[in-house]
């Protein structure tokens, strides 16, 4: 206790500015009077404000997930529980193999993880990536007391990045005792197992002046492959007749060449090689076709091994001063795995006399794609050149091993100025996240080309040794550990181990994010010198200084993008410094008056100076009115800003492979198959004989995209309006309804709204900026055979985003059947989720109730999360009902077999039973009714579905044993 002769103060401060805090005062009189006085002036602060208030009620919608929810759901990875909340659109999680980078992210409202600010006890968490995104894996699950989710702009209080809102993880800082647990979950199929164990010890010391909490935890997550699930074992295509058929990639182990030059050879526009070097037509449709099924070896649950150590503590130096601190360490290893490298490369290869190609095939290829030089005059050109499509199975699967090591240290001082109501909090925090990445299965592109050209004599004849084997025209190692070995790609399984070893290239990288943060806050009220009818005015002042630095160091092949396999990634180095000043004012105009049980106003303003973006500012105006105690109306208007992150500012040009459709290809929507579009395709570099044929279909439905940073970016600006009410119908029933309206201007986005939209806009003459010579067509680069080489999609402040909808939170609590019954409902109805790629664009991308190439992860118009809980003396039972509303594909022009995904209902049943006072067991079943995910064709994300939104594991059982002393 803090004590003095006049006043006894009991102060319990969370390790943060905005975390839940309790302050109570008691006069040095009788114990009963002290308790009454303390109860009368208890003050708390919650996420979204640094001012502690009497009987605080938030003027912004806040959804809370408590420790009981984490225990009942046996949550190991925090994002899995957050993703059940309707305000959250799933980001990267345990299913994220491709796309995926080993991290887990949170994405409020679907506005992007880079616009969601993650806090621990009200303070920033050190980011993991150059985009400033936090890996949720770094937050110790066993230490979480509760999670508060504040949606809507919070930049006036917390600064940049809080455009969509704030997720505040509040950790246990007052734990006493010892608690240990061990848990395991496994699917009904007996796979996808997850082990976890944790140990927590804490206690008070020095007559309760101090408290220290220490935690250790371990997680081991098994892999699960798409080949382990019937719906995902085969990559599926839309067959164009309302059904699905086996599909995959045109990058095949036999090697395929698609060219109009083979039109006379067969009805097919492509050829594929047999193992003996002969050729046949490529079968590109039907239940038995030649596409390569890449699905089975892809993860559908990425494995993980994670170790965490965390410690929090505080100590009362005097009756008005307390020192506190924390230390958190996480080591997490998460690999991803893809099928063997498909190389799509326009290459020149030896043709005449090539022992790997049959004589008949040499003639056909020479007639179709020969280079016109026939040294020996035998009618077969010396060399051929084409876009080769080869799956390099002999090299092995592609595997990316990511190891993340992070630590965050914090030390602070807080307390009060004498006996006044004014308090302070000063702290310093530093954190580092290091990612070491190693990649297997990549090949060097130049060595691929080198090994295709064989040594010849002066007559152009291939030189063979005594055993009939050729040699490379250039036998140098070219950066390999061995000399060039001739490459036989003409038939499945024909690449020798020597050739595979020559192609392989070792790829690795390290990425380091460093953050330093100093903060100081002073808050109090005007008690004793100025008061409104409702009480003294609450005031806070905050200063923060932050330094963010990021460095990405790739190996040579990765930096130069000379690899085929994983995406090339050039080096990135950059950072910024930002200093900010903020103030908040709370005006309790009336309290306890007739028709004004509460009438208050909140004001906040923040200004920040970035070394990159310059000065930015944000403000908040909010208020509430409770005409009676049981009903309160609330409204808030926030401006929010997001300064461009390190990646957006400093990244060099790098490559990616987003899903996209070429309007000139054979699988283009029918709306593009017109004479006008055909003429434009020819004018932009597509040979007339392959327009709207499968010869130029994008491989695996993906198009290479080049993008990079832009140092001239400015901040995004957002306006958030919330209007709603809170009703306490009775002691058992309460609910709140809030309308939200978020508008973001100058949003940082890829030029033209992304690769797919660039292609659409170029070839749709009705759209602005389209047509030959327009910016959109100029961004598309094609090879000589008409296939797309790459699309340029750099970042600019060009987009705008609009999001509107309603949040409903309701609860019912009563005593029934000898125990406590509670029903908690959390629902979101999204009326608008619109994205305008650039000012004046005729293409407004509407994503409410949509999913697909433009909108990405499904955004149902309506979602809810409802729990039914019954608690008795020694057990608790809970049923969770999660509803995911129906969604439609966002590409109306594409003829997908599945254009609508119906609504999904998921039910999870769990319970906790106290074996003794010190031992309890928790068990449950997720996806109780074993609901299968929707099965899609070309409009899926991965595994023929959207696995972060729809359960791909099936009925899952879990159990956790916990001991507390």
Describe the structure.
Among the domains are: 2-54, no CATH class; 254-291 and 342-391 and 443-499, no CATH class. A hairpin with a 7-residue loop joins strand 4 (43-45) and strand 5. It contains twelve helices and 54 strands. It has a 22-stranded antiparallel barrel. The protein has a five-stranded antiparallel beta sheet with strand order 1-2-3-4-5. It starts with a strand and ends with a strand. The chain is mostly beta strands.
What's the helix and strand layout?
Blueprint: E1 2-3, E2 7-12, E3 21-27, H1 31-40, E4 43-45, E5 53-54, E6 62-66, H2 67-72, H3 78-82, E7 116-120, E8 123-124, E9 144-151, H4 155-158, E10 165-171, E11 177-187, E12 194-205, E13 210-221, E14 224-225, E15 236-238, E16 244-246, E17 256-258, E18 270-273, E19 279-281, E20 299-301, E21 304-318, E22 321-338, E23 342-350, H5 359-369, E24 383-391, E25 398-416, E26 423-440, E27 443-444, H6 445-452, H7 497-503, E28 507-525, E29 531-532, E30 535-536, E31 538-554, H8 556-560, E32 563-564, E33 572-593, E34 596-610, E35 614-628, E36 631-642, H9 646-650, E37 654-656, H10 675-683, E38 705-707, E39 716-728, E40 733-750, H11 755-762, H12 775-778, E41 780-782, E42 788-792, E43 795-816, E44 819-836, E45 845-846, E46 850-852, E47 856-859, E48 862-871, E49 875-884, E50 887-889, E51 900-901, E52 904-914, E53 919-926, E54 956-964
Parallel strand pairs: 7-10, 38-42, 46-50
Antiparallel strand pairs: 1-2, 2-3, 3-4, 4-5, 6-9, 7-8, 9-10, 11-12, 11-54, 12-13, 13-21, 14-20, 15-16, 17-18, 17-24, 18-19, 21-22, 22-25, 23-24, 25-26, 26-28, 27-32, 28-31, 29-30, 31-33, 33-34, 34-35, 35-36, 36-39, 37-38, 39-40, 40-43, 41-42, 43-44, 44-45, 44-48, 46-47, 48-49, 49-52, 50-51, ...
């Amino acid at each position: 206790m803090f004590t003095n002769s006049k006043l006894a103060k009991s102060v319990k401060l969370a390790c943060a500015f905005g975390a839940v805090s309790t302050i109570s005062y008691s006069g040095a009189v009788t114990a009963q009077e002290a308790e009454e006085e303390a109860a009368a002036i208890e003050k708390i602060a919650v996420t979204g404000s640094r001012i502690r208030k009497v009987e605080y009620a938030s003027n912004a919608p806040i959804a809370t997930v408590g420790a009981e929810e984490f225990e009942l759901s046996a949550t190991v990875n925090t994002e899995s529980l957050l993703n059940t909340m309707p305000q959250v659109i799933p980001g990267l999680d345990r299913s994220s193999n491709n796309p995926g980078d080993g991290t887990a992210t949170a994405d409020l409202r679907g506005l992007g993880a880079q616009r969601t600010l993650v806090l621990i006890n009200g303070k920033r968490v050190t980011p993991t990536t150059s985009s400033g995104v936090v890996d949720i894996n770094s937050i110790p699950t066993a230490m979480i007391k509760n999670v508060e989710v504040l949606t809507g702009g919070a930049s006036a209080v917390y600064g940049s990045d809080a455009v969509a809102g704030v997720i505040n993880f509040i950790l246990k800082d007052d734990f006493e005792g010892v608690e240990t647990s061990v848990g395991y979950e496994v699917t009904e199929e007996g796979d996808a197992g997850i082990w976890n164990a944790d140990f927590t010890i804490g206690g008070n010391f020095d007559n309760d002046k101090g408290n220290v909490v220490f935690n250790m935890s371990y997680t081991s997550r098994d892999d699960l492959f798409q080949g382990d699930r019937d719906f995902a074992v085969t990559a599926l295509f839309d067959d164009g007749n309302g059904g699905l058929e086996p599909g995959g990639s045109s990058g095949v182990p036999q090697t395929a060449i698609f060219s109009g030059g083979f039109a006379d050879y067969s009805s097919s526009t492509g050829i594929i090689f047999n193992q003996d070097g002969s050729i046949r037509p490529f079968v590109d449709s039907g239940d038995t076709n030649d596409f390569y099924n890449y699905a089975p070896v892809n993860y559908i649950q990425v494995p993980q091994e994670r170790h965490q150590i965390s410690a929090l503590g505080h100590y009362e130096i005097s009756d008005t001063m307390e020192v506190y601190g924390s230390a958190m360490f996480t080591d997490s290893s998460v690999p991803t795995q893809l099928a063997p490298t498909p190389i799509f490369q326009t290459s020149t290869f030896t043709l005449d006399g090539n022992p790997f190609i049959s004589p008949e095939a040499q003639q056909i290829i020479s007639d179709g794609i020969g280079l016109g030089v026939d040294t020996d005059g035998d009618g077969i050109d010396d060399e051929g050149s084409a876009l080769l499509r080869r799956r390099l199975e002999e090299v092995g699967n592609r595997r990316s091993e990511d190891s993340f090591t992070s630590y965050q240290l914090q030390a602070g001082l807080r307390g009060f100025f004498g006996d006044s109501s004014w308090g302070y909090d000063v702290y310093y925090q530093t954190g580092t996240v290091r990612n070491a990445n190693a990649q297997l299965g990549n090949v060097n592109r130049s060595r691929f080309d080198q090994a295709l050209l064989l040594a010849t004599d002066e007559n152009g004849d291939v030189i063979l040794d005594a055993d009939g084997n050729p040699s490379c025209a250039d036998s140098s190692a070219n950066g390999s550990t061995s000399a060039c070995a001739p490459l036989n790609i003409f038939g499945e399984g024909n690449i020798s181990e020597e050739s595979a070893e020559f192609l392989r290239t070792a790829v690795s990288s390290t990425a380091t994010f460093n953050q330093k943060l100093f903060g100081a806050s002073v808050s109090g009220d005007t008690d004793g010198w100025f008061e409104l009818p409702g009480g003294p005015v609450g005031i806070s002042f905050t200063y923060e200084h932050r330094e963010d630095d990021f460095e990405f160091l790739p190996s040579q092949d990765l930096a130069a993008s000379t690899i085929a396999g994983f995406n090339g990634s050039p080096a990135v180095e950059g950072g910024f410094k930002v200093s900010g000043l903020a103030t908040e004012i709370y005006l309790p105009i009336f309290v306890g008056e007739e028709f004004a049980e509460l009438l208050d106003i909140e004001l906040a303003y923040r200004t920040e100076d970035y070394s990159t973006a310059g000065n930015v500012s944000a403000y908040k105006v909010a208020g509430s009115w409770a005409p009676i105690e049981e009903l309160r109306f609330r409204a808030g208007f926030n401006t929010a800003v997001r300064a461009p992150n390190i990646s957006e500012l400093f990244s060099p040009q790098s490559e990616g492979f987003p899903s996209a459709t070429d309007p000139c290809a054979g699988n283009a929507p029918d709306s593009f198959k017109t004479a006008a579009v055909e003429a434009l395709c020819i004018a932009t570099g597509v040979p007339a004989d392959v327009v709207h044929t499968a010869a130029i279909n994008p491989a695996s439905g993906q198009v290479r995209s080049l993008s990079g940073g832009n140092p001239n970016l400015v901040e995004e600006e957002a306006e958030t309006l919330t209007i709603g009410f809170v009703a306490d119908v009775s002691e058992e029933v309460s609910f709140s309804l809030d309308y939200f309206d978020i508008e973001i201007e100058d949003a940082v986005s890829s030029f033209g709204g992304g690769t797919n939209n660039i292609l659409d806009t170029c070839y749709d003459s009705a759209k602005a900026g389209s047509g030959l010579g327009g910016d959109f067509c100029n961004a598309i680069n094609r090879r000589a055979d008409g296939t797309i080489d790459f699309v340029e999609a750099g970042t600019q402040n060009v987009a705008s985003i609009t999001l509107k909808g309603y949040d409903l939170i309701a609860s019912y609590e009563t005593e029934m059947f000898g125990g406590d019954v509670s029903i908690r409902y959390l629902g979101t109805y999204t009326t608008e989720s619109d994205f305008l790629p650039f000012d004046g664009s005729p293409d407004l991308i509407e994503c409410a109730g949509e999913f697909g190439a433009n909108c990405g992860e499904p955004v149902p118009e309506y979602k809810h999360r409802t729990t039914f809980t019954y608690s008795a003396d020694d057990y608790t039972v809970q049923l969770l009902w999660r509803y995911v509303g129906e969604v439609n594909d966002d590409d109306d022009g594409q003829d997908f077999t599945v254009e609508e995904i119906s609504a999904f209902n998921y039910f999870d049943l769990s319970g906790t039973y106290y074996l003794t006072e010190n031992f309890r067991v928790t068990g449950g079943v997720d996806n109780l009714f074993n609901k299968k995910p929707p099965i899609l064709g070309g409009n899926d994300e991965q595994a023929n579905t959207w696995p972060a939104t729809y359960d791909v594991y099936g009925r899952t059982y879990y159990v956790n044993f916990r001991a507390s002393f």
